[in-house]
Every structure is written in C-alpha cells, then in structure tokens.
C-alpha cells in the first residue's frame, strides 16, 4: 500500500487553503446544502501495482473511485476518511438496464458527503436518444452532483450487441447523448473512454468535452498524446478501506485548489 509522504501532505494542506480558481431530487442526496470540500490523503492499496515511468498517480492530491454492481457492502464514511474525494457510480446501460447497486451507492456516497456523479455505459445497438431518456428517467437532478458521464468503449463480450460503427457514427451518437443530458442537467457530461476506443474513433474531435481516460500502464500524456484530460483511471485492481473487494482507482488532474474551483463550476 502506498501512502503520501509528509512533505506532500504539507503541500496538499496548503493547497486546500487556496481560494477558488428525470426526476427532481427526492432528498436522497444526503444533505440539504452542499457540504464543504474535504480532501483526505489517500490510503489506497493495489493488488497489481504498476511501476510508473515518470509522473505517477501518487503525485496527484485528489483521488476517487468508480463503482458498479460488483462493489457491494461499501462503507462510504470509511472510504471518505481513507481519501475517496469523488465517486463515479454506474447508473444505466443501453435503454433498459439499471445497475442494481446504483441507488444504494448514490445514497451512501451522498450521505458520506462524497461528491458523486452517475455514468451510463453506451450500447451500440440502440439509438442514443433512447439511452439518454433512460438515463434521465433513472438519475435524479441532485444539487451538488458531479456532471453525468458517458462511458464509451468496445464491448467484445456483449451477448447481444457486437456492432462496431465507424468513428463518424460513434461521434454523432455521442453528440446526441451529450446534448440531451446537458439540456436536462445543466452541465455538459464528461466522456470516459479507453485507449483503443479513443484511437479507433478519433474521440478527440468531440467538441466541448472533458475526458476521463483509462490508462493503467502509462501516464495519459504518453498514452493519449496531446489530449487534455480531467480524470485519469489508473488502476482496476485497487484496494480502498470501506470496499470489501477490488475497485477502480482514479485521480483528478490538478491541485486541491483546482479541484475546489472545478467543483464550484461543474457541480449541478
């Protein structure tokens, strides 16, 4: 398990003092007013740690996780104390699938005061607008929530859809989905993607998009050269206090002050 050293903690604490740079919510957000931003030093482990060449994830102060039905029995308060500063939670897939753990995760993270957002796994055999409507029907507009996320990646193991449209079609469908959610939630969604999908479909051409990039064997600047990013998923084998099993690990791209400013601008 890696831990941030005392010198790095001092920098993080100093940064924390910097100034700022569907249905309606049913009270499940966990608080009537937005909680203060709290960034605890991460105390995460990794079953398969990568020997990073160059800047590694521990040099970033703001860490978080993403979770779906595979993560059950989560103690969100313990996770927050262990350094989980944000959580992206799977909500929907395609036009008719709701993750069975979404509501539990959404309520638990909200009660713990962890900034959280919902993500949708895109299904290439269903129109984007139908999928957007399904997401909107299941994910509340909740004050303080992070922007929604569109997860686009190839799924070679899907039992019902092996379609691989060309890049122009992929980007067009993504645009339809992003526009629909932006109109509803008032925030442009983030796009999560993987190295092969990004390259195959020239995803960098999407307008007005902040990216959440998966790269478990190299810094995003090397794996996605020239592409700006907001979140980096650096491991799929993480160990986080409060989570009984493995979970994905992520970092935010900037300092604690940058995080505070980004939240102020991008929360719903």
Automatic annotation (TrEMBL):
Keywords: Glycosidase, Hydrolase, Signal. Residues 1-15 form the signal peptide. InterPro entries: GH, Glyco_hydro_25, Glyco_hydro_fam25_subgr. Pfam families: Glyco_hydro_25 (PF01183). One of its GO terms (molecular function) is lysozyme activity. SMART domains: Glyco_25 (SM00641). One of its GO terms (biological process) is cell wall macromolecule catabolic process. PANTHER family: LYSOZYME. Belongs to the glycosyl hydrolase 25 family. This is Glycoside hydrolase family 25 protein. It comes from Szabonella alba. The lineage of its organism: Bacteria, Pseudomonadati, Pseudomonadota, Alphaproteobacteria, Rhodobacterales.
């Amino acid at each position: 398990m890696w831990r941030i050293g005392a010198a790095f903690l001092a920098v993080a604490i100093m940064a924390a003092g910097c100034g700022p740079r569907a249905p309606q919510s049913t009270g499940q957000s966990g608080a009537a007013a937005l909680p203060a931003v709290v960034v605890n030093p991460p105390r995460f482990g990794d079953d398969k740690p990568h020997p990073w060449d160059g800047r590694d994830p521990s040099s970033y102060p703001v860490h978080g996780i993403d979770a779906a039905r595979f993560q059950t029995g989560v103690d969100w308060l313990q996770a927050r104390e262990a350094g989980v500063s944000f959580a992206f939670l799977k909500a929907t897939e395609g036009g008719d699938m709701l993750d069975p753990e979404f509501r539990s995760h959404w309520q638990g993270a909200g009660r713990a005061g962890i900034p959280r957002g919902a993500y949708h796994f895109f299904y290439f055999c269903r129109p984007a607008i139908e999928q957007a409507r399904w997401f909107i029907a299941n994910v509340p507009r909740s004050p303080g929530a992070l922007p929604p996320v569109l997860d686009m990646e190839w799924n070679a193991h899907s039992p019902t859809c092996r379609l691989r449209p060309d890049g122009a079609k992929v980007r067009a469908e993504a645009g339809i989905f992003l526009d629909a959610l932006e109109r509803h939630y008032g925030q442009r969604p983030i796009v999560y993607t993987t190295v092969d999908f990004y390259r195959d479909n020239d995803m960098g051409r999407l307008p007005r998009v902040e990216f959440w990039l998966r790269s478990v064997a190299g810094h995003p600047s090397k794996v996605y050269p020239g592409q700006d990013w907001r979140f980096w998923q650096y491991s799929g084998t993480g160990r986080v206090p409060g989570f009984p099993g493995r979970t994905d690990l992520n970092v935010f791209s900037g300092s604690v002050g940058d995080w505070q400013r980004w939240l102020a601008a991008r929360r719903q």
